[in-house]
TrEMBL record:
Record organism: Levilactobacillus namurensis DSM 19117
Name recorded for this polypeptide: Extracellular protein
Transmembrane regions listed in the UniProt entry: 12-30
Top-rank taxon: Bacteria
Record keywords: Membrane, Transmembrane, Transmembrane helix
Amino acid sequence: MTDKQWRELGELALTVGMVTGIGALPGYAMPVVHQASGALVATALKQNRDLNDDQVHFTPVPAQYAAAENPHGINTIASNRGQAVTFQTLYQLPLPGPRGEAWGDPQSMVTVGQYIYIVYCPTTWQNRGRIVRFDRQRLDQLNVTPRQLQRVYTAKAAQSAREKAIRSAIKIGPAFTTGHGQSLAYNWQDGQFYMWCDRESAPRVPINQEGVLQRISPQTLRPVKQIHFRLRAGHFAVPGGHVLTFDRQGRAYFWTRPSASRVYIYQGTIGQDAVHFRLTRQVLTHGPGTRVQSMAYNPQNDRLYLVSDDSIASLPVAGLAGNGHLTPADVQWTGFASKREFEALNFTADGRAYLMSNHDPEILQSTNTTW
């Protein structure tokens, strides 16, 4: 199918979605694999070892998230504790989406080459959403301001030639079953996107114990394959991940909170027809915060970043090998006082960090590449 045909399909999905109120699912045949073998490597929890990463400060979710200080302009989110980093607004994201579609709650983000990909899951769509691609190169050529991108789908912008040009830099994918939608990730090894289809009956309440991973086409912005499996070994089982990232070697990662402050980190591989994960051997006794918001990999320093609201911990990938040989000094932490909701963190190949924040949704970029 050509890009034009997919664009027409996306427009049709938008129209039907606004009529039905839930978003239209595209009608296409997608290969589905049901993995017979367990996807979790034999796990003996008694062999796990605690790592006292007490430099990480657990940050509880705020009673109420703060909105952006400058909802139509440039904002700064700077660390106030730990490893220093400063983020500044790159784009204020469109609000609303086309035909009034609810784009106020973006869930995940990937930056690859000239493109930024964002998953939108309007709450009334019930585990459905869509991926939207922004052509940053084209937006830069147009010298787009944060406010211009933010208002691109408003009624006042409909007849503006400039806003039409900005809209041409945005590709809207078809609606599909996303689950919570917070796990879109780029595999550096095969150039494909993957995400959990973690359907929920309520926020952070999985519908069932089955793990489902979807491979997403970067061209069509829709799933092209699903793998269903169980992450179970003996009496130990998890329903699947809520976040996802990949390192340069194509190894996949996600993290969970088995208790209030502890952190489990899983490492694995996602093949054509099978998924395998292992629970790494060291347990972080101090997690970054209440919400498992995102996970990121920085190819510049080979570190993983565990993201909660206003709190981000990081550790070297190499320290997870075998039985694990992380030391407390290997774990770094950055704290903020913004009270913003941190939805996604991503790194480009040069090590620049991109943070997506909610409540006046925007993308902010780090002012340096050494964090």
